[in-house]
Amino acid sequence: MSSLTAPSSPARLAGHALVEALVAQGVKTCFGVPGESYLAVLDGFHEHREQIRFIACRQEGGAAFMAEAQGKLGPTPGVCFVTRGPGATNAAIGVHTAFQDSTPMLLFVGQVAGEQRDREAFQEIDYRQMFGPGTLGLAKWAAEVHSADRLPEYVARAFHTALQGRPGPVVLALPEDMLSSMTSASVLPRVQPVHAWPTPDALARLRSLLAGARRPLVIAGGSGWDAQAARALQRFAEAWQLPVACGFRFQDTFDNRHPLYAGDVGIGVNPRLAARIRAADLIIALGVRLGEMTTGGYTLLAPPRPAQKLVHIHAGPEELGRVYAADLLMQASMACAAPALASLAAPSSIPWAEHTAAAMADYEANLVAPAVAPLDLAVVVGTLQRLLPEDSIYTNGAGNFSGWLHRYCRYPGLQHHGRTQLAPTSGAMGYGLPAAVGAALLQPERWVVNIAGDGDFLMTGQELATATGYGARKLISVVVDNGSYGTIRMHQEREYPGRVSGSELFNPDFAALARAYGWRAEFVDRSEGFEPALQRAIDAGQPTLLHLKLDAEVSTSRTTLTAIRNAAAQRA
Fold it and tell me: According to the CATH classification, is domain 12-183 in 3.40.50.970?
């Protein structure tokens, strides 16, 4: 045998070889909904059950959200298995979330047998077209594996693609006859992504821009961060006394308790922070895509040439210059960019010290909550943070309810405990509960709290059964029930005041529903009732749902439906 030829392995089912390839990549847990199109893979999970587990979920959207959360938590990409047709279409929401959140994830889709292709066989879809890779597609790469002998090659490439540059999702379609055929192909070694460092010239240019600034500000976020990079970002900010804001739903990138923290930039941004960004003379965007939410609908930084000087540092070359003509573009991964920035020598005196102190003061002022009766969600968030450990993970889906979590939760930087915020920048409803279930199963030593709206929760509420079935313990779901799709109602009152249509909800008894799934549950309708209910949940040692009843009038952490309606009427 030639020295260039990879050694072969004993012949086994391709489905077994696929599971072996996942084990070789360090994957210990996969999520999915079983299907007849990949029975050989399910048998592979049974064969290697001591090394890897398959979590059977109740719907593919929930399974994909769990895998997306797994990719955020690391250390490997998230992995999800679904069957063809409806399985893949249900899972697409998780793939889209992974794409917009730049989360490394693999979706494996069972496919019709090769001899049946292109006849519109039962549940047949061309997944290469459906997930259409591209800058506005659903996945970074989508392929179909026809040869069992090449399956390890495809798997290794999928991991490379998911992790390399701007991380993201990859989709592999697996014909069932290929999976049930025999192969002697060996699995490939674990993938290690290649990191790009900033060039010395670019760093010198950045230092020059900083030296000429008077009102600089860092916006940090995105994926690809690790503890070392987060610590390096903190050293850079401290050396230069830079105010640091975090991009939309990446609030755990920088320690929110640090005196240089300026707040988060996203939906419901602190108006003072928004004004500070507009008035800045230098913005250093570190790891963030500068998408619609982080730029306030492309108004905080106006494309294509913002008024502020702009330095954009990102791992994906396709993101640089995509929207903004920046003064300095640097392609670098966060694992390299942050330490490089930390190496920049700061001047002996910093001219923007008062600017930085004012940014922190603005953030702390934003934490002062107006009293709301009878149930105050600011009190709820504060109580959660006071009673639960610092390393607790908070998850949410989409809806106005999440605004209280974003505004009042103070996330420790990921250098302390890893990710503590799991939330979809894609705005996907239903994300929070499956993400929490996945996190609780992946990291059972940590507490996980899901904050969900009533509409948000019922999109994936059946995953309560997954938590029960697989023994989750330190898991709390707080369901905020205001009887409406609150965000849509808010927009209706703003655009068509008093004309409510389609945004009202008929809800079940959420506490009774949770008990039917084997959870503990309590109903809370007053602020003073939340702390004892939470303490009982902590003491119980089993998953608990806390059903909170909120008046629909309380629209956001800043305003009410009446105020929105009156403002709209005045404009008319």
Answer: yes
